[in-house]
Specification:
Blueprint lengths: L13 H7 L13 E7 L6 H6 L8 E7 L4 E8 L6 E5 L17 E5 L7 H10 L5 E6 L14 E2 L5 E7 L1 H9 L1 E2 L5 E5 H10 L2 H7 L4 E5 L7 H6 L9 E2 L1
Parallel strand pairs: 4-5, 5-6, 6-8, 7-9, 8-10, 10-11, 11-12
Antiparallel strand pairs: 1-3, 2-3
Length: about 240
């Protein structure tokens, strides 16, 4: 949304949709949308201000606002019921855990937060809110604070096949690989230092989760796969080893 490919200097809201889209579609009866707008050095506005901009909408909507430590802000607006299968850059503030279970169709989730860590209870809620989740990607360098509440094998992602752990604190590798049941995991993307730590810990749940992995992408720093890796990933096909 913008003129000549130039984006707006504000978060996209209901007034933008009315002016730029709905106005040109007089026969439009149903409008499903999920729009994420990003601004650097964005001014702080209230969530209710975004919601009130949809006063002309004839269908339910919701929105979420984030102001990150990297000086960027983001606003996500979406129609309800939510029909998308992907959610990107979801933080602790996103209303993912509502009682209406709005996001049952989501199969791909990218988590990002540089303000607050993702605690164990957060992942417990994700499993309930997104029962069909197949791909999970995590970006968070903040150490978890509520470690006393963690229990082994208390969380399960029954359909998760791809786990991507790039820019993370080691806690999240331990949380998801060592203390979470992942019976369908076939693809793992992980930092080399985190992977070696997990292998050295030699926990049975981690072995179970890695036993079916066929694609392993090890992010820098890279070392040549050894018998240690192969013993931890018995189903691994060597041709799938990639260097990023």
């Amino acid at each position: 949304i913008g003129v000549n490919g130039i984006g707006p200097d504000h978060f996209i809201d209901g007034l933008d949709l009315e002016r730029e889209i709905v106005l040109y579609m007089p026969h439009l009866r149903q409008f499903y949308f999920h729009i994420r707008s990003i601004l650097q050095y964005s001014p702080h506005i209230e969530l209710d201000t975004i919601r009130q901009s949809f006063f002309r909408q004839q269908q339910p909507i919701d929105c979420a606002l984030d102001y990150f430590s990297n000086q960027y802000g983001q606003c996500q607006i979406y129609s309800l019921p939510f029909i998308g299968t992907r959610l990107d850059f979801i933080s602790n503030k996103f209303p993912l855990f509502d009682v209406e279970k709005r996001f049952l169709n989501v199969t791909m989730l990218l988590l990002f937060d540089d303000v607050k860590p993702f605690e164990n209870v957060f992942f417990e809620r994700v499993t309930r809110a997104l029962p069909r989740l197949k791909t999970l990607e995590v970006f968070n360098q903040l150490e978890q604070e509520e470690k006393s509440n963690m229990t082994i094998n208390s969380i399960e992602f029954p359909h998760l096949s791809s786990l991507i752990l790039h820019d993370i604190h080691m806690n999240y590798a331990e949380q998801l690989v060592c203390r979470t049941r992942l019976p369908c995991l076939v693809e793992l993307v992980i930092r080399n230092d985190a992977l070696l730590t997990i292998i050295n810990q030699d926990q049975q749940q981690a072995k179970n989760n890695c036993s079916k992995v066929e694609t392993l992408v090890i992010v820098e720093p890279w070392i040549k796969p050894s018998t240690v890796h192969l013993s931890f990933f018995p189903n691994l096909l060597l041709k799938f080893f990639d260097i990023v």
